[in-house]
Design a protein that fits this description.
The protein has about 290 residues and is an alpha/beta fold. The chain has 13 helices and six strands. The protein is about 45% helix and about 10% strand. A four-stranded parallel beta sheet has the order 4-3-5-6, sandwiched between helices. A hairpin with a 2-residue loop joins strand 1 and strand 2. It is globular and about 50 Å long. It starts with a strand and ends in a 6-residue tail after the last helix. The structure holds adenosine-3'-5'-diphosphate. The site of adenosine-3'-5'-diphosphate (A3P) has 21 residues, from helix 2, helix 5 and helix 11. Belongs to the sulfotransferase 1 family. Keywords: Transferase. GO terms for molecular function: sulfotransferase activity.
C-alpha cells in the first residue's frame, strides 16, 4: 500500500495537497470576527457550511452564485492562507485538521460538527474512491477500514480528532453539533447556530435556509454547481481537478450495508469507551438518534 497522506507540521493532510499551502493555512493568524467550521471529513461539513452561508446571506441559496459561495467558504488546507485573506467577509473557514491545529483567537467562533464513526468511515470510503490519486482505496472496503481505525487516512485518527474537539466543547466560542442532531431537528440546529453567531433571522429567512439545506435541494443543486465551478476555476497551478460528491446518500446508519459484524463491534466499542470518558456527550449530541 502507499501512503495517502503526508505530514505537515505534525498533522496528517491529503498527500496531493501542496505542503506550503497547507502550512500557510495552519499559520494563519485568526481574527476576532472569524468563523471556523471544524470537522473530521465526511461529518456533515458541507451541510452545516450551507446553513452558516444562509445565515450570513439572509437566506440566499448557495447556487445563486457558486463562485461567491466558494469565496465565502474557503477550504483552508486546500487553498491556503490566501483564500482566507481574500475571503468575502463575513465568511466561514472550513478546516479538517484537529482542533489543536486550527488557528486560534479568543473571540473567533468555532462551529464544530461531529458524526458517528461508522457512517463517517463508510462515507469517507466512498469519497476517497472518487479521487484518482487514491487508487489504493479502489481496492476493498476492508482495506480502507484498517487504515481508518489505525488513523492512516488524511486528517488522522477519528477518535483523536473527536477528542481534540471535545476538549473544547465548553469554551464559550465553541459550538458543538452533530450530524445526527441535524437529521433529527434541523430547525433547532439552525436556530442554535444563529444564536451562537448572533445573527437575527426571521421566519422567511429561516424557511429559505431550511429549504436550501434539505437533502433533496442540496443533492440536486449543490454537487452540480460545486463541480462545475471547480472545473471552471481549475488552472495549471492546480494539481488536480475532478468532480467530487459531497452529497451522497445523506442518511444515518448507512454503515450497515458495508460493514461486517466484527467491524461494527470494534467501532461501537471504541465509541462506547470514548463516551464514558466524556460524560454528557451522548445526551448533548445524540439525544434521540439511533446510531
Ligand atoms: P454520506 O456519504 O453518508 O451520504 P462532508 O460535507 O463533511 O464531506 O460530509 C458529507 C456527508 O454529508 C455525506 O454523507 C453527504 O451525503 C452528507 N450530506 C451533505 N448534505 C446533506 C444534507 N443536506 N442532508 C443530509 N446529509 C447531507
Amino acid at each position: 500500500t502507499q501512503d495517502v497522506y503526508q505530514i505537515v507540521d505534525g498533522t496528517k493532510v491529503p498527500y496531493h495537497f501542496n505542503a506550503e499551502t497547507v502550512r500557510s493555512a495552519l499559520n494563519y493568524e485568526a481574527q476576532p470576527d472569524d468563523i471556523f467550521i471544524v470537522s473530521f471529513p465526511k461529518s456533515g461539513t458541507t451541510w452545516i457550511e450551507n446553513v452558516v452561508f444562509g445565515l450570513l446571506n439572509d437566506g440566499k441559496a448557495f447556487d445563486d452564485d457558486m463562485g461567491y459561495y466558494l469565496s465565502q467558504t474557503p477550504y483552508a488546507e486546500r487553498f491556503g492562507q490566501n483564500s482566507i485573506m481574500g475571503m468575502v467577509r463575513p465568511g466561514s473557514i472550513k478546516m479538517h485538521v484537529p482542533f489543536n491545529y486550527i488557528p486560534h483567537h479568543p473571540k473567533a467562533k468555532y462551529v464544530c460538527i461531529i458524526r458517528n464513526p461508522k457512517d463517517v468511515c463508510v462515507s469517507f470510503y466512498h469519497f476517497v474512491r472518487e479521487i484518482p490519486l487514491y487508487a489504493h482505496f479502489n481496492a476493498k472496503f476492508n482495506t480502507f477500514f484498517e487504515d481508518f481505525i489505525h488513523g492512516n487516512t488524511p486528517y488522522g485518527d477519528y477518535f483523536e480528532h473527536l477528542r481534540s474537539i471535545c476538549d473544547h466543547k465548553d469554551d464559550t466560542n465553541v459550538l458543538l453539533i452533530s450530524y445526527e442532531q441535524m437529521q433529527v431537528d434541523l430547525t433547532g440546529v439552525v436556530l442554535k447556530v444563529a444564536e451562537f453567531l448572533n445573527i437575527n433571522q426571521n421566519k422567511e429567512v429561516l424557511e429559505k435556509i431550511l429549504e436550501h439545506a434539505s437533502f433533496t435541494y442540496m443533492k440536486q443543486k449543490f454537487d452540480k454547481a460545486h463541480n462545475t465551478c471547480h472545473a471552471q476555476k481549475s488552472d495549471k497551478s492546480q494539481t488536480f481537478s475532478f468532480p467530487l460528491t459531497f452529497v451522497r446518500t445523506g442518511v444515518a446508519g448507512n454503515w450497515s450495508s458495508q460493514m461486517n459484524d466484527e467491524q461494527v463491534q470494534l467501532l461501537d466499542q471504541k465509541m462506547a469507551d470514548f463516551m464514558r470518558e466524556i460524560p454528557g456527550l451522548n445526551e448533548l449530541l445524540w439525544p434521540k438518534a439511533k446510531l
